[in-house]
Fold this sequence. Notes:
The protein is α/β, with parallel strands linked by helices. The protein contains 6 helices and 11 strands. It has an 8-stranded mixed β-sheet with strand order 3-2-1-4-5-6-7-11, covered by helices on one side.
Amino acid sequence: MKRIVILISGRGSNMEAIVEACAAQAWPARVAAVISNRADAAGLDYAAARGIATAVVEHRAYADREGFDAALAQAIDAQAPDVVVLAGFMRVLGDAFVRRYRGRLINIHPSLLPRHPGLHTHRRALEAGDAEHGATVHFVTEQLDGGPAVIQGRLSVRTEDTADILSERVMTHIEVRIFPQAIAWMARGILRLEDGRVMLAGSRLDAPLQLADLEPGF
Ligand code: GRF
């Protein structure tokens, strides 16, 4: 039974989707804990209501990144995680932290990486006039938003889209589908990071899988 720890900073929309999928699809895993850097993260209430352990490690309580990262790692390790999921976690994690969890640490970024790493991705996609936009699940490495990509989902940008509309469309049509899919593969032990390469069911992925290409129930 793999143990999943999910880190959040806010609503926890992706965390909810993973918790639901883990139960509905009977993954050989359980969400052992939800941890946030903010005591007011709404996702903590959802997790607690589901009987999932929660913890808060306030980044403001630490003088520097290393101190915060070490305290966060301590809270994570108390849960003996096989998978550490960054689900709307809004802190940049230092190299020592990334090295500690390499291969177990996975993130979702709301853009079609490598386009638009960093923040305000929906506004930037609109400003760039992108015809398509979406989200990417990737392993976390020392390169911010640059780790090896696993799966992407994309949609057409519409003329009436604002950054808020686009954000909601990407979340509801893409994020809450690709992230649970990737975590399910990790829970089943078929998605791995080996020598910096993504391995899925024994085959190397040199580019992220596209949600549209996936057979249902793969
Ligand atoms: C999402 O767009 C996610 O891609 C990004 O943070 C945003 C908020 O996530 N990393 P959530 O609603 O807190 O899950």
